[in-house]
Specification:
Elements lengths: L4 H9 L12 H12 L7 H11 L2 H11 L6 H11 L4 H8 L3 H15 L4 H10 L4
Helix pairs in contact: 5-7, 6-7
């Protein structure tokens, strides 16, 4: 899954039973399956360490304050996200919405910045979690 502390914490808030990175070794995947099968939660040590460092950092308290303030996306930004989530390129979205490709690219950058994410894949994931798409 995503290597983002807020996504990991959100996953556990939404009652996931375990969390491992998609590039985890097979042995770790099997261990996670066994732990979850026994009714326990599974978090690998490196993720536990990462979460503990994040929770005790200034970034966590800032993100808690920010998360209490709902981020509002404009209708155009939502339209861009929905089109990209459907697999359209920036050029295709531009043609579909009668915009220039550079305008769509600028919208994408602004959306990433507004949501405080790393890339548009995370934006699509966020939009899915929030029920936007």
């Amino acid at each position: 899954m995503l290597d983002n502390e807020l996504y990991i914490l959100d996953a556990f808030k939404n009652n996931v039973e375990g969390y491992i990175y998609k590039d985890a070794r097979i042995s770790e995947l099997l261990k996670a399956i066994n732990v979850v099968y026994k009714g326990k939660k599974y978090i690998p040590p490196e993720i536990k360490e990462k979460l503990m460092t994040f929770i005790t950092s200034k970034n966590f308290s800032e993100s808690q304050k920010e998360s209490s303030e709902k981020i509002v996306l404009t209708p155009r930004q939502i339209e861009i996200i929905k089109n990209v989530a459907q697999g359209f390129t920036s050029k295709e979205v531009a043609e579909k919405l009668f915009l220039s490709e550079l305008t769509v690219i600028k919208h994408r950058k602004n959306i990433i910045k507004k949501l405080g994410l790393k890339n548009f894949t995370e934006v699509v994931s966020y939009a899915h979690q929030e029920g936007i798409i």
